[in-house]
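Supplementary Methods. Inverse-folding protocol.

Structures were first reduced to a discrete structure-token string of length 395. This string, shown here, constituted the complete conditioning input.
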């Protein structure tokens, strides 16, 4: 009963996790003039969201910054190419102008008491527009990414004080002084301290590559090739290898889900879907161990077939997904090369062991058949054939 309950509990936890990450979401926002943005990110402060289209060919982005605000207040969104926070921010201010329609001013901020006036920013702005509708102000702009860099510091702000008809000052507490961080227009990731996210990316990459990408193939090699030489030790090695791979793998998978939920506007569909399939298959594989029929049970052959099939599928999908992950996280080339080298080595080892195993098995078969025994040696590699049941009944 407990074995049934724990997967159910995990499933429930996961469902809550998913629904929470979907709850506060920018994806449902729509825009005037049938503007469409391919990516978005809900910002954690001031009920705001940033939507954008990134054009790598010319290093520009179209953005829509939307924030909750009354028609008598102002909102601002800025990139800060040189620093964090307010000083150095290149800002777009949106507010109701003196003639009653929305005005948008561009101001570079170099002091804590800036004068908001319409000027130039130190990157090119191709177009700008502000809009007020139903309690939300929206800034639309097309701009050149400073230095053609997709990871930029952003700052956003809101206030209600004006002086001479232009925004002046905002609250100096709470969300108003925490509304800044970095944004990656390529991956969609935002963070208020870039390093913690990078740390999580690295953790996800390392945990996943080691567990799904290295330990699991080693576990499979153990099962397939040690059987002939080390019976029953192979079984315990195999179980130990796959169980630790599963535990570490689920930890890596969890950090992956967290990373995904933080960039709700950008989803790597195939990487995410393969990841979810992998988790399900591996979970089934681990719990199937408990349902394994006895060695001489007539259904044992079906269980074996299923176990091989799912096992190999997990390994193939894992390797595919790890390469997809390399493309997404884009770590230094050395990491990908190191992984390729490890997988190639494991593949080489498997090939050599395959050959050695066949030689050993055929020799044994020879010997056995000269002994006029009917044992089928080759069968011993593939299934738990007679040879094993003789040697080790329990496994
Ligand atoms: C940048 O490129 C996109 C297409 O990739 C195009 O739609 C857009 O007009 C270009 N912007 C500028 C400012 O040239
Ligand atoms: C900006 O960077 C992208 C990718 O790094 C590159 O493909 C593109 O040519 C660059 N654009 C400009 C205008 O430098
Ligand atoms: C209102 O003022 C803005 C500048 O603040 C100007 O761009 C716009 O054309 C004006 N609209 C009307 C209807 O005068
Ligand atoms: C951009 O403008 C800010 C002030 O608005 C200034 O401090 C900074 O040096 C400028 N950067 C460049 C690269 O011109």
């Amino acid at each position: 009963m407990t074995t049934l309950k724990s997967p159910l509990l995990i499933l429930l936890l996961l469902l809550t996790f998913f629904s929470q990450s979907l709850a506060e979401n920018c994806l449902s926002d729509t825009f005037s003039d049938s503007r469409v943005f391919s990516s978005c990110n809900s910002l954690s402060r001031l009920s705001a969201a940033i939507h954008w289209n990134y054009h790598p060919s010319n290093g520009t982005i179209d953005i829509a910054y939307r924030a909750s605000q009354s028609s008598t207040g102002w909102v601002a969104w800025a990139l800060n190419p040189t620093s964090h926070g307010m000083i150095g921010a290149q800002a777009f201010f949106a507010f109701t102008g003196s003639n009653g329609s929305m005005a948008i001013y561009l101001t570079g901020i170099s002091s804590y008491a800036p004068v908001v006036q319409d000027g130039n920013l130190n990157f090119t702005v191709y177009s700008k527009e502000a809009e007020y509708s139903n309690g939300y102000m929206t800034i639309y702009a097309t701009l050149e990414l400073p230095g053609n860099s997709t990871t930029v510091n952003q700052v956003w702000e809101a206030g209600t004080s004006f002086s001479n008809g232009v925004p002046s000052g905002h609250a100096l507490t709470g969300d108003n002084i925490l509304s800044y961080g970095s944004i990656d227009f390529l991956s969609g990731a935002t963070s208020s301290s870039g390093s913690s996210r990078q740390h999580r990316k690295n953790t996800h990459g390392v945990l996943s590559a080691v567990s799904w990408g290295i330990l699991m193939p080693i576990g499979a090699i153990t099962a397939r090739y040690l059987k002939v030489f080390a019976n029953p030790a192979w079984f315990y090695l195999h179980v130990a290898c796959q169980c630790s791979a599963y535990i570490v793998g689920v930890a890596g998978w969890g950090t992956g889900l967290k990373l995904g939920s933080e960039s709700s506007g950008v989803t790597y569909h195939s990487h995410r879907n393969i990841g979810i399939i992998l988790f399900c298959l591996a979970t089934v594989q681990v719990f199937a161990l408990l349902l394994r029929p006895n060695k001489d049970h007539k259904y044992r052959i079906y269980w074996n077939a299923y176990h091989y099939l799912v096992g190999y599928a997990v390994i193939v999908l894992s390797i595919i997904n790890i390469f997809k992950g390399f493309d997404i996280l884009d770590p230094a080339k050395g990491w990908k090369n190191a992984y390729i080298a490890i997988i190639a080595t494991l593949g080489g080892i498997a090939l050599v062991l395959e050959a050695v195993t066949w030689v050993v098995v055929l020799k044994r078969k020879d010997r056995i058949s000269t002994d006029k025994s009917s044992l089928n040696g080759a069968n011993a590699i593939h299934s738990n054939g007679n040879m094993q049941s003789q040697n080790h009944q329990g496994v």
